[in-house]
Structures are given as structure tokens and as C-alpha cells.
Design goal:
267 residues, 26% helix, globular, three-stranded antiparallel beta sheet, alpha/beta, Rossmann fold, binds adenosine-5-diphosphoribose
């Protein structure tokens, strides 16, 4: 079973392999472009870093969300059982922030690549914001859930539904028709990420994997680069090496919004 978990629980240490190489962006070298053939199939994984230039906080960077909150207080089933209002205050604030943010050049570049590749493209995001879809992405999986969707805490059968409401006290939390409370449609630590079979299938048939703006600290997403076959080109884009850097064939250091439009030639 593939529950959401931290690298700390696995205790892994990685180093860059001899075959891996880093390209420095920001004047040191020109932005590289990614050569794609008409038969290439591209699997993209994004994390919080892709929305950083839209003004949304990442989790583990300095000043990130996990500096202000403890995961155990707001992002676990136990936190929900202990204090649902605290959990909803956290996600209500995130609804406010994401509602005010706009897609950036990185979101748009990925939507542009999808237009070029059609069904040879799949974007899997760990992000719960809606900036990818607002930039035009359609072949998109939100493996950690969606911020603007809620569902019944008891899974009574009512499907998850669109919801932009803010719930800031226990009394304010909406109730399902079955009487249970409405919870965020978010995958918390210890829960199963969504659509894992489809993700596995798409990774199996991909020839290129692009990973953007994720620290490689949270599983199972941090393992996708290892699930891809040895002939798959695996490229990481972000301002610093991720924790799973050793598994990539190429690391492009730079901000996603500055690197991706040139890399994907969708300026
Ligand atoms: N462009 C690209 N990457 C960036 C940028 C940027 N402008 N700014 C920061 N980054 C990178 C950081 O270097 C860091 O490696 O984004 C990464 C963000 O890492 P995390 O904060 O750990 O976020 P993420 O990897 O998406 O977290 C995974 O953890 O808390 C859970 O469920 C939550 O989906 C989340 C998961």
C-alpha cells in the first residue's frame, strides 16, 4: 500500500551519480531546450515550487508552510479527529491564498507542452491549488487532492464536490446530508494518494519524465523517478537539488517560471 509519507520514515541518503550533471541557469549557461521526438511520451510531476512564483508558499523552504504549522496538527486524520476546526482554518487560509494567486509562466509552459503533445502527455501534481487547470492543463491528476473540493468525512457515498467556502469554527463546518461533517478533499499523511494505478501506467509507458519544484521528501511521489525505466530521460527543474537527485539524468537549477518556457520552447 502506498500511503503518503515522509522520507524521514525511510532514512534514505542520496548522492549525485557520476552520470548526472547539473546545468546552472542564471547567466552561467543558456537555458537548455529539451529535445522531443514525435514518439516521446512525457510524464510530468510538479510540486509546490511550481506555484512559488505565483506567490504561494512551499512547504519545506525557509518561511514555508511547515515552519508555521506542524504536519501533525493540520494534515493527518488524527488532527481532524482532534480538532477539525483547526484543520479547516488551515485549509480556509489556503483557499484564500490560492484564490488570489494567478498561474505563472511555468504553469503556462506546461499547458503549452500538453497542447503540442496531446495524449502523449500527462501532468501529475502534488499541489492542491488549481493553477495548472487555470493555465489550461487538462490531462491532469491531483494526486494529493484538490483545495477547492470537499467531501463527506464518512465517505457516505456522496461524491466529492466543488466547494470554495471558508470554515473557521466547529459550528461553521458544513454537514453532509448523512449528518457527518464535510472535510477537505486533501490526501493527508497516512492516507492513500489518488489515481495511483493510472499514474503507474503512465510512468510505465513514458520516455521522458520532468519533475518540477518538489523536494523529493514525500512518498510515493519521490519514488516516481525510480519507477521509470532506465531508458527514460529524467529531468529535474528547481532552484536546488531535490533529496532524490541521484535518480535523475539531468538537473536544471533555476526557477520553474524562468526555465520551463525556454526548456519546453513554449515562450
Ligand atoms: N521553481 C521551482 N522550484 C522551486 C521554486 C521555483 N520558483 N521555489 C522553490 N522551489 C522548490 C524548492 O527548492 C523545493 O525543492 O520547490 C520545492 C518545494 O518542496 P516542498 O516544500 O517540500 O514541497 P513539495 O515537494 O511539493 O511537497 C510535497 O508534501 O507537505 C506535503 O502534501 C504536501 O504535496 C505536498 C508534499
Amino acid at each position: 500500500m502506498l500511503y503518503l509519507s515522509h522520507i524521514a520514515s525511510l532514512g534514505a541518503i542520496f548522492q549525485l551519480p557520476a552520470t548526472g550533471y547539473a546545468l546552472l541557469y542564471n547567466g552561467v549557461m543558456a537555458v537548455p531546450t529539451l529535445p522531443l521526438s514525435p514518439t516521446d511520451r512525457v510524464f510530468v510531476l510538479t510540486g509546490a515550487g511550481v506555484s512559488a512564483e505565483s506567490g504561494l508558499k512551499t512547504f519545506r523552504d525557509q518561511g514555508g508552510l511547515w515552519e508555521g504549522y506542524r504536519v501533525e496538527d493540520v494534515a493527518t486524520p488524527e488532527a481532524w479527529d482532534e480538532d477539525a476546526a483547526r484543520v479547516w482554518r488551515f485549509y480556509s487560509q489556503r483557499r484564500r491564498d490560492a484564490g488570489q494567486a494567478e498561474p505563472n509562466a511555468a504553469h503556462r509552459a506546461l499547458a503549452g507542452l500538453e497542447q503540442r503533445l496531446g495524449d502523449r502527455f500527462l501532468l501529475c501534481t502534488q499541489n492542491v491549488d488549481d493553477l495548472h487547470e487555470r493555465a489550461g492543463s487538462q490531462r491532469l491528476i491531483h494526486m494529493h487532492g484538490e483545495l477547492f473540493v470537499s467531501r463527506c468525512e464518512d465517505n457516505c457515498g456522496r461524491p466529492p464536490f466543488p466547494d470554495r467556502s471558508l470554515y473557521e469554527s466547529e459550528e461553521a463546518i458544513a454537514r453532509c446530508a448523512c449528518g457527518a461533517r464535510i472535510r477537505p478533499h486533501i490526501v493527508w499523511f497516512g492516507e492513500m494518494p489518488l489515481e495511483m494505478e493510472r499514474i503507474q501506467r503512465e510512468i510505465d509507458r513514458s520516455t521522458v519524465m520532468l519533475v518540477v519544484g518538489t523536494s523529493g521528501a514525500v512518498y510515493p511521489a519521490a519514488n516516481f523517478v525510480r519507477w521509470a525505466g532506465p531508458r527514460v530521460r529524467k529531468v529535474y527543474i528547481g532552484p536546488e537539488e531535490p533529496m532524490n537527485a541521484a535518480a535523475f539524468t539531468q538537473i536544471v537549477l533555476g526557477n520553474a517560471g524562468e526555465v520551463l518556457p525556454g526548456l519546453l520552447q513554449v515562450v
